[in-house]
Write a structure and sequence with these properties.
about 140 residues, mainly alpha, about 0% strand
Length: about 140
């Protein structure tokens, strides 16, 4: 979290007003799902479900841009924890810790946390799939492919 706060301070992210075109599509898909009970032709239903959940509690369409930052931050932290859990099966605790901390150094990925985009949840679900696969197949099978 300190690294994200550092990015906010160094890059003045709290003053940004840029909204990516993709973000408006994700917003539209979330409001379609929760307000009109229909899907979106370009965006997956799971992402609309995740990002649109605040609409259940009375959030507005604009509020989704702000809550997306919180949702992305949670998924980002859970991704780091999953990476650590996977790495610890193959290397020492110390090396697993530093490998998962290395993920924080990828500033491009960290900057996605501040936008209403699906990259952060996608990375989480990718690592969750890898975690489940490695847990269920055992260490040797996971290493050998």
């Amino acid at each position: 979290m300190i690294s994200l706060l550092l990015l906010v301070v160094l890059l003045d992210i709290h003053q940004q007003t840029l909204i990516f075109p993709d973000a408006t599509n994700y917003n539209e898909s979330a409001t379609n799902l929760y307000w009109y009970v229909r899907g979106h032709c370009n965006r997956p239903l799971l992402m609309a479900t995740i990002y649109g959940f605040p609409l259940v509690f009375g959030a507005s369409e604009f509020d989704l841009y702000l809550t997306a930052q919180f949702i992305n931050g949670v998924f980002w932290l859970m991704t780091i924890l999953l990476m650590y859990e996977i790495f610890i099966q193959y290397v020492s605790t110390k090396v697993a810790f530093w490998l998962s901390i290395l993920f924080i150094c990828f500033f491009g990925i960290s900057l996605y946390n501040f936008h209403f985009l699906a990259e952060t949840p996608f990375l989480f679900f990718f690592w969750l799939l890898a975690f489940i696969f490695c847990k269920n197949t055992g260490r040797q099978k996971c290493l050998n492919g």
